[in-house]
Amino acid sequence: MLKILRKKGVAKKIIWFIAIVIIISFGFFGTASLLSNQRNTGYAGKIFGKKISFDQFEKVYGHVAIQALIKYGDNFNKIREHLDLESQTWDRLIMLHEAKKRGITIKDEEVVKAIEDYDFFKRNGEFDPSLYDNILRYVLRVKTRDFEESIRDTLKFKKLFDKETSSIFPSEEAIFQFYKKKNEKVQISYILVTSQDFTNQLSINENAAKEYYSQNKTKFQIPSTINVEFVKMPLQELVPEPNAELSSEETANNNEISNKNNEIAKTNNIIREQANVIYYESVDNPDTFAKIAKDNNLEIQRSGFFSEEKPNLNLGWPYEFLSMVFNLEKGAINEPLETTNAIYITKVIEKKASYTPAFEDARQAVAQELIKIKSKEIAKQKAEEHLTAIKEELDKTKLKDFTKAAKNLGLEIRQTPVFNRGQYLPSVGISMNFQETAFLLDNENKISEVVEIDNGYCILHQDSYIPIDKTKFEKEKEELSETLISNIRNQAFNDFLVRLRLAAKLDNNLQRLRELAAQQEQQAR
After folding, report:
1. Residue 70 near residue 20, CB atoms below 8 Å
2. Whether pLDDT at 384 is above 80
3. Residue 335 · residue 315 · CB < 8 Å
4. How far is it, in rounded angstroms, from Cα 481 to Cα 475?
5. Which residues of 302-330 are buried (b: 16+ CB within 10 A; e: fewer)?
6. What is the phi-psi region of residue 320: left when phi exceeds 0, alpha when psi lies from -120 to 50, beta otherwise?
7. Domains and CATH numbers, the chain
8. Which helix (H) or strand (E) holds 230?
9. What share of the chain has pLDDT > 90, as a percent?
């Protein structure tokens, strides 16, 4: 199978790509332990009325992870918790079903060509079979066949994409409007009424708070939290070594620094070895974690309860590590984590399931939410009163001077810089409402109605409008057309995928099994 890519070569150490080392089936979306008892009798879910086994799902999940690694490279570990690989796996299974239905196949030669085109499998501009084998074995840690089948499936999706979108082309008018939206500019004067201006004036009635709470309990749900025991093993920092040309005296000093750094490195390696010993001894018997730490003259510390949404950042741990610790079972001990200045070994000692607090416990949060709502209502009312007053003031003169009218009413005028769509604006931020309204204003309608933004309400006045350069548009039209075609086709395929998902009628058994496991865990407490 694809023998051309499997020539034997001497295994070589890969340095430049090592940052994304990961076992593809890392925890099988974090719930493998909960589902292990169901593997022989259960199933992951159903699509198009057919059951998907755990093995099928896990295999395709691995393919999704491979493609994510290829796409994001050494950023994969930083963002993987945001990728929702499980949903992507279901989408991949649905598209595989559709590709099979349409008879889409990929020849071995196409897979070979696709793999040979990846830059990270090349050395000196040429595909290197030895490098390919080493990356799969030591970096991706995936079998060659699994990797090649993931590429084959991805090529099937490309063909499916082409079949669905190859006939789609934008009109000349669509290209012009696309360019116009990206390049036209405007400058706005505006009056801002913030909801914050009224929060101190408000108090909340107890009965109103109770009524709001009873109708919106989910807003005040407390997420799952954990409490962690850990030991911290400080590491010594290396002394920076100068890089410039050195005098004899400086060379002697530099040699002294190098010797000192060698000693520091040796000390740090001893600490790393000690951390590994403590970890392996504790994993064998988690109940002895505190005793083992004490025997090694280490202080046991506690994190206090924290949630995945609001981790305890004071610990100084990377977010991905905090997230990983959060998903450990109660009593589980994590392998040593090394930061820039210390090594940590952690044990999950308590887990609290998500719950909705009683009104008495949520009273303050309910009051804050109601004040936020009511203060924004007042801000809207005030802005509408200002708009009415400004229009009346403008009707008094023929000049229709917005700034003068506002000043006559004692209102503060703010002005944006010249901006185009998507640009951050001081005091406003990135508000679609504000920006779209700004570009709808013209010489006939220079003043807007009241416009909502995140922190209040605005009244806008168009000060100036800068149209596009049509000569520049003609020069850039061809390149722009390619961008627009890509955008339109991607959107068309997304719409197609939405229809496919609906047709598949996904029955996700994994979610039910998680909920069941959570209920069983809660009952066990």
Report:
1. no
2. yes
3. no
4. 11
5. ebeebebeebbeebebeeebbebbbbbee
6. alpha
7. 3-167+497-524 (no CATH), 185-219+359-466 (no CATH), 223-240+249-352 (3.10.50.40)
8. strand 225-234
9. 46
